[in-house]
Automatic annotation (TrEMBL):
Lineage: Bacteria, Bacillati, Bacillota, Bacilli, Bacillales
Entry annotated with the keyword S-adenosyl-L-methionine: no
Keyword annotations of the record: Signal
Protein name from the UniProt record: BMP family ABC transporter substrate-binding protein
Residues annotated as signal peptide: 1-24
Species: Paenibacillus germinis
Domain of life: Bacteria
Amino acid sequence: MTKKWTFSLTAILLMILTACSGQSTTTSTTTAPNASPASTQAANATPSSVEKKLPRVAFVYIGVPGDGGWTYEHDQGRLMLEKELGIKATTVENIPEGPDAERVFEELAQKNDIIFGTSFGYMDPMYNVAQKHPKVTFLHATGYKTLPNLGTYMGREYQSAYLVGMAAGKMTKNNHMGYVGAFPIPEVIYTINAFTLGAQSVNPDIDVSVVWSNTWFDPATEKQAAISLLDKGVDVLAAYQDSPASIQAAAERKVWGIGNDSDMGRFAPETYISNPKWNWGPYYVQTVKSVMDGTWKSSSYFGSMKEGITNIAPLGKNVPADVKALVEKKKQDILNGTFEVFQGPIVDQDGKTRFEQGKKMTDEEILGTTWFVKGIKGVIPK
């Protein structure tokens, strides 16, 4: 009995000492008498435990992701954004360039924090709406007008076009190639120029005939434009539209075809060479992150192949190995910064020297291109 009482007394003394010790090191938190559990948790939370509110993001598409080209690649970028940042973005498809676009952007601006417009013709509608909603961040693909809350973004697709042109120059037999242009705007013009310069770098006798479809996605119209060139006897056909209509038309004539925007090899596997390819995901992720952390500033982004925003699709299965090796070598030169596509001498289709030997075109000069290089047959409408 004595040992049991002694043990109990000792235990009680230890408990008292422990309690006193705990009181001396514990910091008490004062809570308002009527505070809710939620407000109490917020008061006790550390800054790192409070998640930032995710922004509301919207994308406006000129076409549909099923086009297999331009809109498809932008939508792939959206999916990457959603996966990496946990954002569920709003998408609006098939919005024509014009008054309807401005109405759509106005409606989205009332419900979203960040809006991406993915076609050149959205420029003025986005500019007008951005002026009325200074707290909303607008990003416009391929345009040139900016505001404190409106930036632009584009990639140096001409680097990819040059490489594809090299492959095309090695594949032609009669030195006559064709190109279906979308609209006569600098983005399309300098891409056709780069393609032609790439082809001429391996075969100086090449000429490129250009016709305009004045469409971004209209398979029927684009196929007719392609046929007009095929009827002239071109044996390589390239195009700058969102649909695979042109390379499908070329395949029907057993002519080499070059697509645009995304890997279009599946549409004409036997006669496919390659095409420039976009990768918008990293840009979308980084841009939204910068808006979220408050570091975003309006700018005109012009990303390069080195940054991964543009590349070339895998060369077709019937393109010879030596051609693939040649293109890969030049690609490495571009990535290493040892080769510039638009570096003189550059002569226009009228025989005028635009840039002397060794002179590089500036970004402003590239983005303002309104003339064709030597070897191109076609007119740029005013």
